[in-house]
Amino acid sequence: MDPPSSPFHLPTSLEPCRIDALPPAAYYIADFISEEEEEAILHKVETAPKARWRQLTHRRLQTWPSDLVKDTLLDSRPLPDWLETPIVSRILSLPVADGEPNMFADSPHGRPNHVLVNEYPPNTGIMPHKDGSAYYPVVCTVSLGSSLCLNLYKSKEDGALDPEPVWRILQEPRSLLITTADLYSEYLHGIEPISADVDISEQTIANWSLLRSSVFRDGLNQRQTRTSLTYRDVLKVSKLGNKLGSRFGRS
Ligand SMILES: O=C(O)CCC(=O)C(=O)O
Ligand SMILES: [Fe+2]
Protein backbone atom coordinates (compact mmCIF):
# COMPACT_ATOMS: atom_id res chain seq x y z
CA MET A 1 0.00 0.00 0.00
CA ASP A 2 1.20 3.53 -0.60
CA PRO A 3 2.50 5.26 2.53
CA PRO A 4 0.33 8.04 4.01
CA SER A 5 2.62 10.80 2.67
CA SER A 6 2.29 9.42 -0.85
CA PRO A 7 0.15 11.35 -3.32
CA PHE A 8 -1.48 8.11 -4.36
CA HIS A 9 -4.61 8.38 -2.50
CA LEU A 10 -6.05 8.52 -5.94
CA PRO A 11 -9.75 9.25 -5.80
CA THR A 12 -12.02 6.20 -5.91
CA SER A 13 -13.58 7.55 -9.11
CA LEU A 14 -13.20 10.47 -11.52
CA GLU A 15 -16.43 12.05 -10.35
CA PRO A 16 -14.88 14.32 -7.65
CA CYS A 17 -12.26 15.42 -10.21
CA ARG A 18 -14.71 16.64 -12.81
CA ILE A 19 -14.11 20.22 -13.94
CA ASP A 20 -17.62 21.52 -13.31
CA ALA A 21 -17.12 24.80 -15.15
CA LEU A 22 -16.64 22.97 -18.47
CA PRO A 23 -19.07 21.22 -20.80
CA PRO A 24 -18.93 17.41 -20.69
CA ALA A 25 -16.44 16.35 -19.90
CA ALA A 26 -13.04 17.06 -18.36
CA TYR A 27 -11.33 15.72 -15.24
CA TYR A 28 -8.23 16.98 -13.44
CA ILE A 29 -6.09 15.19 -10.84
CA ALA A 30 -3.28 17.43 -9.55
CA ASP A 31 -1.18 14.66 -7.96
CA PHE A 32 -1.35 11.80 -10.39
CA ILE A 33 2.33 10.80 -10.21
CA SER A 34 5.04 11.42 -7.60
CA GLU A 35 8.07 13.70 -7.97
CA GLU A 36 10.30 10.59 -8.23
CA GLU A 37 8.14 9.17 -11.01
CA GLU A 38 8.15 12.53 -12.80
CA GLU A 39 11.94 12.68 -12.62
CA ALA A 40 12.34 9.10 -13.87
CA ILE A 41 10.04 9.69 -16.85
CA LEU A 42 11.74 12.97 -17.77
CA HIS A 43 15.08 11.16 -17.67
CA LYS A 44 13.76 8.53 -20.11
CA VAL A 45 12.41 11.25 -22.41
CA GLU A 46 15.71 13.11 -22.38
CA THR A 47 17.84 10.02 -22.95
CA ALA A 48 15.71 8.50 -25.73
CA PRO A 49 17.66 7.87 -28.95
CA LYS A 50 18.07 11.09 -30.94
CA ALA A 51 16.15 9.58 -33.87
CA ARG A 52 13.08 9.43 -31.65
CA TRP A 53 12.73 13.20 -31.71
CA ARG A 54 10.92 15.01 -34.48
CA GLN A 55 11.85 18.68 -34.58
CA LEU A 56 9.07 21.06 -35.58
CA THR A 57 9.67 24.79 -36.04
CA HIS A 58 9.46 25.56 -32.34
CA ARG A 59 8.62 22.35 -30.57
CA ARG A 60 10.00 18.84 -30.65
CA LEU A 61 8.12 15.62 -30.07
CA GLN A 62 8.39 11.85 -29.77
CA THR A 63 5.72 9.34 -30.82
CA TRP A 64 5.43 5.93 -29.12
CA PRO A 65 5.36 3.25 -30.37
CA SER A 66 5.43 5.10 -33.73
CA ASP A 67 3.86 7.76 -35.96
CA LEU A 68 0.46 7.24 -37.51
CA VAL A 69 0.24 6.67 -41.27
CA LYS A 70 -3.17 7.53 -42.71
CA ASP A 71 -4.61 7.53 -39.21
CA THR A 72 -3.29 4.00 -38.66
CA LEU A 73 -0.79 2.75 -36.13
CA LEU A 74 1.63 0.52 -38.06
CA ASP A 75 3.58 -0.61 -35.05
CA SER A 76 1.49 -2.70 -32.71
CA ARG A 77 4.18 -3.35 -30.15
CA PRO A 78 3.21 -2.38 -26.60
CA LEU A 79 4.27 0.93 -25.10
CA PRO A 80 7.67 0.87 -23.39
CA ASP A 81 7.50 0.11 -19.71
CA TRP A 82 8.38 3.67 -18.61
CA LEU A 83 5.28 5.00 -20.42
CA GLU A 84 3.12 2.09 -19.28
CA THR A 85 3.88 1.88 -15.55
CA PRO A 86 2.54 3.51 -13.48
CA ILE A 87 0.49 5.80 -15.72
CA VAL A 88 -1.62 3.41 -17.81
CA SER A 89 -2.42 1.14 -14.88
CA ARG A 90 -3.54 4.15 -12.82
CA ILE A 91 -5.71 5.48 -15.65
CA LEU A 92 -7.34 2.06 -16.06
CA SER A 93 -7.87 1.76 -12.29
CA LEU A 94 -10.05 4.89 -12.19
CA PRO A 95 -13.77 4.33 -12.76
CA VAL A 96 -15.66 7.23 -14.33
CA ALA A 97 -18.02 7.07 -11.34
CA ASP A 98 -18.32 4.62 -8.44
CA GLY A 99 -19.42 1.22 -9.74
CA GLU A 100 -18.78 2.18 -13.36
CA PRO A 101 -15.95 1.08 -15.67
CA ASN A 102 -12.90 3.17 -16.59
CA MET A 103 -12.66 5.70 -19.44
CA PHE A 104 -11.35 3.15 -21.96
CA ALA A 105 -13.81 0.34 -21.22
CA ASP A 106 -15.57 0.90 -24.57
CA SER A 107 -12.54 1.86 -26.64
CA PRO A 108 -11.40 -0.58 -29.36
CA HIS A 109 -8.33 -1.74 -27.46
CA GLY A 110 -9.63 -1.12 -23.96
CA ARG A 111 -6.62 1.06 -23.18
CA PRO A 112 -4.38 3.76 -24.62
CA ASN A 113 -2.01 2.32 -27.25
CA HIS A 114 -0.25 5.52 -28.30
CA VAL A 115 1.66 8.29 -26.55
CA LEU A 116 2.84 11.60 -27.89
CA VAL A 117 5.61 13.32 -25.95
CA ASN A 118 5.61 17.07 -26.58
CA GLU A 119 8.23 19.45 -25.20
CA TYR A 120 7.34 23.12 -24.71
CA PRO A 121 10.15 25.48 -23.71
CA PRO A 122 8.90 28.96 -22.66
CA ASN A 123 7.45 30.91 -25.61
CA THR A 124 6.37 27.65 -27.26
CA GLY A 125 2.81 26.53 -27.83
CA ILE A 126 0.54 24.58 -30.10
CA MET A 127 -1.99 26.12 -32.50
CA PRO A 128 -5.68 25.66 -31.70
CA HIS A 129 -6.81 22.36 -33.22
CA LYS A 130 -9.06 19.36 -32.84
CA ASP A 131 -7.55 15.89 -32.47
CA GLY A 132 -9.53 14.40 -35.36
CA SER A 133 -10.85 10.98 -36.15
CA ALA A 134 -7.80 8.76 -35.66
CA TYR A 135 -8.44 8.34 -31.95
CA TYR A 136 -11.10 7.13 -29.58
CA PRO A 137 -12.37 10.44 -28.15
CA VAL A 138 -10.68 10.28 -24.75
CA VAL A 139 -7.42 12.18 -24.22
CA CYS A 140 -5.30 11.69 -21.12
CA THR A 141 -2.50 14.21 -20.66
CA VAL A 142 0.16 13.96 -17.97
CA SER A 143 2.17 17.17 -17.50
CA LEU A 144 5.80 17.19 -16.38
CA GLY A 145 8.30 19.87 -15.40
CA SER A 146 6.27 23.09 -15.39
CA SER A 147 2.76 24.51 -15.33
CA LEU A 148 0.99 26.09 -18.26
CA CYS A 149 -2.49 26.92 -19.48
CA LEU A 150 -4.34 24.89 -22.08
CA ASN A 151 -6.87 27.12 -23.84
CA LEU A 152 -10.21 25.93 -25.18
CA TYR A 153 -11.69 27.66 -28.21
CA LYS A 154 -14.86 27.40 -30.19
CA SER A 155 -15.60 28.06 -33.83
CA LYS A 156 -17.79 31.04 -34.76
CA GLU A 157 -21.05 30.59 -36.70
CA ASP A 158 -19.15 31.00 -39.99
CA GLY A 159 -16.70 28.26 -39.01
CA ALA A 160 -13.81 30.64 -38.33
CA LEU A 161 -11.95 30.29 -35.06
CA ASP A 162 -12.88 32.74 -32.33
CA PRO A 163 -9.35 33.74 -31.26
CA GLU A 164 -10.47 34.50 -27.71
CA PRO A 165 -10.38 31.29 -25.64
CA VAL A 166 -13.65 30.36 -23.94
CA TRP A 167 -11.89 28.64 -21.03
CA ARG A 168 -8.42 28.06 -19.65
CA ILE A 169 -7.26 24.93 -17.83
CA LEU A 170 -4.09 25.22 -15.74
CA GLN A 171 -2.02 22.03 -15.90
CA GLU A 172 0.47 21.59 -13.08
CA PRO A 173 3.49 19.26 -13.16
CA ARG A 174 2.51 15.66 -12.26
CA SER A 175 -1.15 16.31 -13.05
CA LEU A 176 -3.50 14.28 -15.22
CA LEU A 177 -6.07 16.01 -17.43
CA ILE A 178 -8.71 13.92 -19.18
CA THR A 179 -10.86 15.47 -21.92
CA THR A 180 -13.66 13.71 -23.76
CA ALA A 181 -17.10 14.02 -25.41
CA ASP A 182 -17.97 17.59 -26.50
CA LEU A 183 -14.60 18.87 -25.40
CA TYR A 184 -13.07 16.42 -27.85
CA SER A 185 -15.44 16.92 -30.76
CA GLU A 186 -16.87 20.45 -30.53
CA TYR A 187 -14.10 22.61 -29.10
CA LEU A 188 -10.53 23.30 -30.16
CA HIS A 189 -7.57 23.33 -27.80
CA GLY A 190 -4.24 25.10 -27.97
CA ILE A 191 -1.37 26.55 -25.97
CA GLU A 192 -0.23 30.13 -26.43
CA PRO A 193 3.46 30.64 -27.26
CA ILE A 194 4.20 32.95 -24.33
CA SER A 195 6.77 33.06 -21.50
CA ALA A 196 4.20 33.45 -18.71
CA ASP A 197 0.52 32.78 -18.28
CA VAL A 198 -1.10 35.93 -16.90
CA ASP A 199 -4.31 36.78 -15.10
CA ILE A 200 -4.39 33.45 -13.26
CA SER A 201 -7.25 33.49 -10.76
CA GLU A 202 -10.31 31.71 -9.50
CA GLN A 203 -12.31 33.71 -12.05
CA THR A 204 -10.22 32.79 -15.07
CA ILE A 205 -9.11 29.17 -14.52
CA ALA A 206 -11.76 26.49 -15.04
CA ASN A 207 -10.09 23.91 -12.77
CA TRP A 208 -9.11 26.36 -9.99
CA SER A 209 -10.70 24.36 -7.16
CA LEU A 210 -8.86 21.18 -8.23
CA LEU A 211 -5.36 22.72 -8.35
CA ARG A 212 -2.59 21.62 -5.98
CA SER A 213 -1.30 25.16 -5.65
CA SER A 214 -3.24 28.37 -5.50
CA VAL A 215 -0.09 30.48 -5.20
CA PHE A 216 0.38 32.33 -8.43
CA ARG A 217 1.90 35.62 -7.37
CA ASP A 218 0.37 38.57 -9.19
CA GLY A 219 -1.72 36.05 -11.11
CA LEU A 220 1.39 35.01 -12.98
CA ASN A 221 2.67 31.57 -14.00
CA GLN A 222 6.24 31.98 -15.23
CA ARG A 223 6.77 29.06 -17.59
CA GLN A 224 9.72 26.69 -17.65
CA THR A 225 10.02 23.74 -20.00
CA ARG A 226 6.87 21.69 -19.80
CA THR A 227 6.75 18.19 -21.24
CA SER A 228 3.44 16.49 -21.87
CA LEU A 229 2.53 12.85 -22.38
CA THR A 230 -0.67 12.49 -24.38
CA TYR A 231 -2.25 9.02 -24.07
CA ARG A 232 -4.87 7.94 -26.61
CA ASP A 233 -6.32 4.80 -28.20
CA VAL A 234 -5.64 4.84 -31.96
CA LEU A 235 -8.69 3.21 -33.54
CA LYS A 236 -6.92 1.49 -36.42
CA VAL A 237 -3.89 -0.71 -35.84
CA SER A 238 -2.31 -2.44 -38.84
CA LYS A 239 -2.28 -6.24 -38.71
CA LEU A 240 1.14 -6.05 -40.33
CA GLY A 241 2.12 -3.92 -37.38
CA ASN A 242 5.17 -5.65 -36.01
CA LYS A 243 6.79 -6.39 -39.34
CA LEU A 244 6.34 -2.89 -40.70
CA GLY A 245 7.29 -1.34 -37.39
CA SER A 246 10.63 -3.08 -37.38
CA ARG A 247 11.22 -2.36 -41.08
CA PHE A 248 10.93 1.33 -40.31
CA GLY A 249 13.65 0.87 -37.78
CA ARG A 250 11.61 1.82 -34.75
CA SER A 251 13.08 0.56 -31.52
O1 LIG B 1 0.70 19.10 -24.93
C1 LIG B 1 -0.52 19.17 -24.78
O2 LIG B 1 -1.04 19.27 -23.66
C2 LIG B 1 -1.43 19.19 -25.97
C3 LIG B 1 -0.98 18.26 -27.04
C4 LIG B 1 -2.05 18.11 -28.08
O3 LIG B 1 -2.95 18.87 -28.18
C5 LIG B 1 -2.01 16.95 -28.99
O4 LIG B 1 -1.06 16.17 -28.93
O5 LIG B 1 -2.96 16.78 -29.76
FE1 LIG C 1 -4.49 18.05 -29.40
Automatic annotation (TrEMBL):
GO cellular component, one term: nucleus
Pfam families (UniProt xref): 2OG-FeII_Oxy_2 (PF13532)
SUPFAM superfamilies: Clavaminate synthase-like (SSF51197)
Alphabetic keyword roster: Dioxygenase, Iron, Metal-binding, Nucleus, Oxidoreductase
PANTHER family given in the database record: ALPHA-KETOGLUTARATE-DEPENDENT DIOXYGENASE ALKB HOMOLOG 6 (PTHR46030:SF1)
Record protein name field: Fe2OG dioxygenase domain-containing protein
Superkingdom assignment: Eukaryota
Organism: Chaetomium fimeti
Compartment(s) where it occurs, according to its Swiss-Prot or TrEMBL record: Nucleus
Single Gene Ontology MF annotation: dioxygenase activity
Family per record: Belongs to the alkB family.
Domain Fe2OG dioxygenase positions: 111-235
InterPro entries, per the entry: AlkB-like, AlkB-like_sf, ALKBH6, Oxoglu/Fe-dep_dioxygenase_dom
